[in-house]
Amino acid sequence: MNEQRMQHSVQASGLADILERVLDKGIVIAGDISISLVEVDLLNIRVRLVVASVDRAMAMGINWWQSDPYLSSNAHRLEEENRELRGRIERLEASALSAS
After folding, report:
1. Average pLDDT of the chain to the nearest whole number
2. DSSP at 100
3. What long-range pairs does 83-91 form, CB within 8 A, spacing at least 24?
4. Threshold 0.85, pTM exceeds
5. Chain-centre distance for alpha carbon 27
6. HSE (CB half, 13 Å, CA atoms) of 94?
7. How far apart are CA 40 and CA 45, in angstroms?
């Protein structure tokens, strides 16, 4: 019984080490799926998966979550500001057109 716990503990520790290394260094998994019939492409799917820690992803230039309105309160504020600015531009363009 004690040997099983020790083996499980070593496996969990090994898995944690592997996960830590993957998140620290990052890993990219890429694949393409293509379905053809009589040499006519019916479906093409490209899959790209990056697994990394947030720090590592930012070092690679990946930061899409910072501008996603569902993940960032700052992005929601910027989205609202953008909407207001577009409204102001539309009003200025309309007044410029009516003045000429």
Report:
1. 81
2. -
3. none
4. no
5. 14
6. 6
7. 15
